[in-house]
Structure formats: C-alpha cells, structure tokens
Amino acid sequence: MARMLMDRGFRRVRPLAGGLDAWVSAGYDVEVEDFGEALAIKAPE
Amino acid sequence: MQDILRALAEHGPWIVFFNVFLEQVGIPVPALPTLIVAGALAARGELSAPALLAAALLATLTVDTAWFFLGRRHGQRILKTLCRVSLSPDSCVRQTRGVFERWGMPSLIVARFITGFSTVAPPLAGAMGARLGPFLFYDTLGTFLWAGSGLLVGHVFHRAIDRILESLEHLGSRALFVLGGALVLFVLLKWYQRRRFYRTLRMARIGIEELRDLIGRGAQPLVLDVRSEVERRRQPQRIPGARPIETEAVDRDLSGVPAGSEIILYCT
Q1: Rounded to a whole number, what is the distance in Å from the CA of B245 to chain A's nearest CA?
Q2: Region class of A31: left (phi > 0), else alpha (psi between -120 and 50), else beta
Q3: How far is the alpha carbon of A38 from chain B, nearest alpha carbon, in Å?
Q4: Which of A4, A23, B110, B207 is the most buried (most CB within 10 A)?
Q5: Does residue A27 belong to the interface with chain B, where contact is any CB pair within 8 Å?
Q6: Does an H or E element contain B29, and which?
Q7: Above 50 in pLDDT, residue B245?
Q8: B261 and chain A in contact, CB less than 8 A
Q9: Is B264 exposed, middle or buried (CB count within 10 Å of its CB: 0-12, 13-18, 19+)?
C-alpha cells in the first residue's frame, strides 16, 4: 500500500510500526467506528 | 534415489500423509511433486490411487481442523504467526482475507491450489466465525480436487515422469543433491521474497510515540486505516481522525490530497 501511494507521487508516506495493535496496547486514545458515525472515547490512563 | 522410490512404492500413502501434513502445518515442503510422482506409481499399479487420496484427505483435514479451532480461539494472532512460519510475505494474509470476504467458504476450494494461501485459509475461516460443518465440506472438496489433480497429472504423464526418475536414478546418490538443492532453492526463494517485502516496509517507519506527538502538535497528518471492512468491524477501534481506505479505490479516495502531504498508514 505504501508502495502504491509512492507510485502515485506521494512523497511522505510512512507505515506505522507495530500497527494498530501497538497503538492500542500502548493505551493511546482511540475512536470507535460505529459504521455510520464515529464516536470519540478516551482510553483509560 | 532408488531407495526413495522404493520407499514411496512401499509406504506411498504414509509418505503422502506426512508430506501433506507438514505442508499444511506451514513448513515450506511442497507436497504436490510427491503427489504427482505417487500418481505415476499408481498408474503403473504400484500404488493404490484411492489410498493415496485418502491419505492426503486425512492429513489435510486433521491439520486444518486444528487450525480452524486455533483461528476461532486466537483470531488475528494465529494468522500473523502462520505467515511467519510459511515464509510467505505478510501480504498473503491480506490477500487471503480479501478473497475470503468476496467468495466466502467456497474460496477454500481455490485456496488449496495457492501456496501459503492454503495454510492461512483454515484459521482465517475459524477467526471469521465460520461454522464447522460447511468448513469441513468445502475443505474436503478443495483437498479432493487438489490431491486428485496432482495424482491425475502423475497418471497422465507417468511415462515422462518415469523418464525423469530414470535419469535421476542414473545420477545415483547425486540425485539426492539435485532434489535437496531444489528444496533449498525453493526455501531460499520464499525467504528472499519475504526479506524484500520487509525491506520495502522498513524504508521509513513511524513509531507510535512519534505519531501521537505529531497529532498532539496539531500537525494533522493524513492517517489511513488500510484494514478491510471485516477487520474493522471485528476491531472497531481506530486511531483518532483515521480514514478507512480501500486498495481498489485509492485514486478516488485520495483525489485532491496534495502530493506533499504527510501520510501515515496502519493496519492491525
């Protein structure tokens, strides 16, 4: 995917190391997709 | 070489069983060549084709059912582990998932014919909550066609295969090196593909802390969620402000985005 975007001329493309799993397990804020509307919640500190 | 052939003629179904078993577990030993040679031996009446087919079916169903339940219990994690074991690029998981979403259970029939794919499909079916009955039905059908066509190719081309085996026999023990070399080449090729894939990925990564700081500073990078819809429904959390994007619709979804934009991609 990153390759694809670069082929289309986007120069500053970076994949997130560890992906969503790393983000979630670090306890950072997430949104919950409600398929239609997105609702923002705070992750517990 | 003759020893190998004699072993195959004597213990054909067992050898087929273990070969298919290992391949389904995820070890990169292709079973199709064994099936083809066994099919040629069956054409000469040295082996029983139904017994070979039964061996392939038994091996596949044993392993696949185990994968199915592992997938049901551990979901995502088992898929990631599997792709690592089978030396196939990680994109195989994504591709398998894409096909599975489009075709559903019947994709198990096609999955059998594609290396890497066949090992990933059963745990994926489990992870996606498929029922055991239909799973076993399609898995059996797929294996039947796959093993059957291997044996059939061996049957139809048994004269040509005999000639190849004969020339290998002339090589004597050197034939082992030829076969071993082919296997090593196969594994190296898989390993190389995987490395190249990782190198592309490693080109420039962003860490989670860095991304959080970027968003916190108000830099507003374009964060793209490249997971498929099924994955997003299974795990509905996403990074704040992220936009889902479909591989097929990149041009439509990103029209109007300046080329110099900071873009961050993530999957699971």
Answers
A1: 10
A2: beta
A3: 9
A4: A23
A5: no
A6: none
A7: yes
A8: yes
A9: buried
Interface confidence, given as ipTM, is: 0.77
Spacing of C-alpha A6 from chain mean position: 18
List pLDDT tens digits, range B70-121.
888 887 677 666 655 544 445 555 666 666 777 778 878 877 776 656 777 8
- B200 CB near a chain A CB, below 8 Å? yes
Phi, psi angles (nearest 5°) of residue A12: -110, 70
**Does the beta-carbon distance from A30 to B227 stay under 8 Å?**
no
pLDDT tens per residue, range B201-212 = 445 678 888 899
Interface check for B257 against chain A (CB to CB < 8 A): the answer is yes
Torsion sign over Cα B230, B236, B242, B243: positive
Q: What CA–CA distance (Å, rounded) separates B192 from B223?
A: 30
Per CB-CB distance under 8 Å, the chain A contacts of B268 are 19-21
From the list B40, B14, B31, B34, the residue with the least C-alpha distance to B152 is: B40
